[in-house]
Amino acid sequence: MIFQPVLHPILLALLCAAPAFFVVRALVTGPSRALWVLRLGMIVVVFAMLLRPGIPGGTSRSLATDTDVVIVVDTTASIVAEDWAGDRPRIDGVRDDVQAVVDEYPGARFALISFDAAAQLRLPLTTDATALISSLDVMRPEVTDQSRGSSIGIANRMLGDTLSAAAKASPERARMVFYLGDGEQTASSEPESFASSAKYVDGGMVLGYGTTQGGPMRKTTGQGNEGDDYIEYQGQPAMSVLDEDNLRRVSEQLGVEYQLRSADAAIDLPEAPTSTTDYAASGEVGNVIELYWIAALVLIALLAVEVALATASVVRLRGVARIRQARTPRARTKQTRMRQSGEAR
Predict the structure, then answer these.
(1) pLDDT in tens, 272-295
(2) pTM (predicted TM-score)
(3) Strand (E) positions, the chain?
(4) Are 106 and 63 in contact (CB under 8 A)?
(5) Is the dihedral of CA 170, 172, 178, 183 positive or negative?
């Protein structure tokens, strides 16, 4: 038998001690002792349930990736260009591929950087993959009316700082970088280089989204409520076109491979560095057969008895009230008759 309490056992004892004190006092000094014994039993059962008793079960081997994965995502207006899987926005493909990255490297730590006119660290390194997906789900492209052009390399410094800090904090861990974008350079300057980050990178990939024909872009407000209007250029819908040359240049700077993505092809992710892939916790993770549900069933049974007793008491009191109501008019009539008889005499 093992216990996995929801709180520290001392805190649980203190939480249950207060109601137990009043119940015991009522049990010693008050009437209806059987009812108070029932309530004391409920407190004991709740305490046992919160301790989460269990029986050690079998063991299973769990693969863990001791790797830091930094994901860099393009959030310029072009990332919502509608040429993914026909006419869906490119960011749909980005979200699907990030989920594939999370699934491919279980146990890894993930960080998320987005960039448009500026780079932003959306999520520092964490093992909480759910937080990563949630951050990506709420991430919105830059506001169209505020767009003044952007560079595909604007995140170079933030990426370098993130990788450098990770290397200092955990030098034994490998580091992978995944850059997801369309390579479209709309700033007038040349793209910044990611070459300074290459010394920290042990693997990863640059993933490209879009088509050479391009796709139209809806106007964005940053609120997630894009309308029906499209960005226009010279009276026609502006088209965002994939630039693979720029993306290949980024992959060369980082020292990773480039892959053009499309909705009809499964993503081909690289393997994690073998030196950091192993079985967690000495190769085994214990399973526990939970028993708290037994205490929960006992609690439900005790509550059912309490409700039954309370219902019986209510019925009994209503019966007594009816009897009193029925007797009261007769008593008054009898007194009135006796008074009238006395006056007549």
Answers:
(1) 886 555 444 434 444 567 888 898
(2) 0.63
(3) 2-3, 53-60, 63-65, 67-74, 82-84, 88-89, 109-115, 119-126, 174-181, 203-208, 215-216, 232-233, 236-237, 239-240, 257-260, 277-279, 285-290
(4) yes
(5) positive
